[in-house]
Amino acid sequence: MTTVTVDKAAPTRKVKYGSMSRDRAWALRWSYFFLVIFAIFFLTPPIYMFITSLKSSAEISAATNPWWVFHPTPENYIALLTSNQFLRFFWNSAIVSIFVVTITMLISVPAAFALSRMRFWGSATLATGVFLTYLIPETLLFIPLFKMFAVIGDWTGIQLINRWYVLLILYPTLTVPFCTWIMIGYFASIPKELDEAAVIDGASWIQTLTRIFIPVAFPGIIAATIFAFTVSWAQFLYPLVFTTSTDQLVMPVGIITSLIRGDVFNWGQIMTGALLGAAPPLIIYAFLMDYYIAGLTAGATKG
Amino acid sequence: MADVTLRKVVKRYDEVEAVRGIDLDIADHEFVVLVGPSGCGKSTTLRMIAGLEDISDGDIMIGGDIVNDVPPKDRDIAMVFQNYALYPHMTVAENMSFGLRLKRYPKAEIKSRIDEAARMLDIVELVDRKPKQLSGGQRQRVAMGRAIVRNPKVFLFDEPLSNLDAKLRVQMRIEIKKVHQKVRTTTVYVTHDQVEAMTLADRVVVMNHGRIEQIGTPNELYHKPATKFVASFIGSPAMNFIPCRLEDLAGKLHIRLTDRIAFPLPPARAARYQGIPRTDKLLLGLRPEHITEARPHLSPGVEAFDTVLDVTEPMGMETLIYFTLEGSQVCGRVNPNAGAQDGAPLRLAVDLNNMHLLNEVTGVVL
Predict the structure, then answer these.
(1) B-chain residues within 8 Å CB-CB of A199?
(2) Is residue B331 within 8 Å of residue B318, measured between CB atoms?
(3) Does residue A234 sit in the same domain as residue A127?
(4) Option in B87, B99, B134 nearest A202 (CB)
(5) Within-domain flag for B230
(6) Which of chain A's termini has less CB crowding within 10 Å, N or C?
(7) Count of structural domains, chain B
(8) What are phi and psi of B144, to 5 degrees?
(9) What pLDDT digit, counting tens, does each position of B168-195 carry?
(10) Are residues B282 and B167 part of one domain?
(11) Residue A69 included in any domain
(12) Which of A200, A218, A299 sits opposite B50 (nearest CB)?
């Protein structure tokens, strides 16, 4: 408002000088504009899923307005939440994700600490190498990996294929490189003097890591945790390839294989299952985001 | 408490020699300041004493024991860093006690040491705060507190005041001196600020290009610099260097500055410089306070000459004057009432009793 009065007070002036607040106002308008488009674009599918999940199969196949529910029913939710099979998928997903997150953090945090702080021969090359492994897509890897596990099964008799715990070996190949990379970045932002002070105070490498680095880089650890959880929760290709029995399936694959029978799509339950499956990451995001952002801004200042 | 000894200490980074053979004996309780321009090797030297850098050659001894391969935590030293290096997630008390807790000291002991250090540094009311709630000066106190509670053999300070504003720096300088008077721990202090070096040190070590230029008390360095580097580095405004040569005029040894200006040397100086070839290119080193306004009666060894001032800088208790002599700018200090003005002529006096004569090529003070 003030900028407008300033302009009126000097109407003869031809050169328009930029005003900070006016620039800011326009920047805000543009960002709102794009954020609204963004929100519409990304919220439409879940809303559609939610609407569909409240419909009966008859209403879904009827030629009514797909964006409105005329006879809302909880039958899809009841069907899934009372189905042992669906609960099994959910349970498998939860177990796999929790284990994968734990394994990932146990590997990538010490790895990142070593790669960012202990200057040993080849550490820089190794750090780049870790990141490069992340760039290889899993669509390229699943065939050799499958072959590998088959060979291991033949030689040792240890059957890994079609066991849910094979995913505990597979998922970290995706999560460890990226989480290590994120953590290298976070650890690199911690001033060198901090670990030197710790060393002089008498801390060993392990103590420096656990008592200084992990608490200071906690936002980074949360970011890595969220990433690892999301990847393992949403991973589709590996479980599709490596697990086949219904009691070994995780949710994304389970929903597809059990709710699509031949060419019959049980849309109501598919949408419900997808929504229920999206809930845990959403809850975790909402819960950890506060810590994440608070930690980020606190770490930005010196000292 | 211990003495620290460096014997021919060398630090090489690939092909660069950062420190080129340093010998230094630091006595127990002594406060030694390493000073020099950036890149002179002073911080590297300190970090080698701390054990944060390996030494490429030579020996470092703390309390008589060679510590070349002893890790930092076993050297019993404490270090204060330029950017404080406080642990951001710990309170002041936790920061100070971290080292003691790692060594599993009893809780009561830790508490009494923190209390004592906090009282000494006047940070008692801050012990429960986090570093980000503290000002720069307070953070620096906490960093010092962290060093004090350990009660180490040696304190190492790495430019601890560089991040503070000028006023706070003066205050903390006095604070550091007070702490040293109380705890009497052997201290090695690195700075690039010659004023800090002069005010804090029992002895100052001036370093340049990885070597020690001179070791001495602040007064020795100021009044008897060994090289041109030390002469120009210590003192502010810096010492003037005026190209000159020696000349025999009427049986007395004179120093000739320009075609117009030649001063007879005081007898003591004349005897000292008699053997120098008259053709040698020399530099006359004079501190600004020895170039003042001429008084009616000149004391022996003080010679007067006329010049035209370029610029004057009134400082309040004195006025700095700048004029040109044979192409080199010269700075003097005159009384504010001497009538010095920009572009005005002024009769000045130089006190040759306090002169230095340097070899222009080698930079050695003769």
Answers:
(1) 52, 71-73
(2) no
(3) yes
(4) B99
(5) no
(6) N
(7) 2
(8) -70, -40
(9) 889 889 989 998 998 899 999 999 998 9
(10) no
(11) no
(12) A200
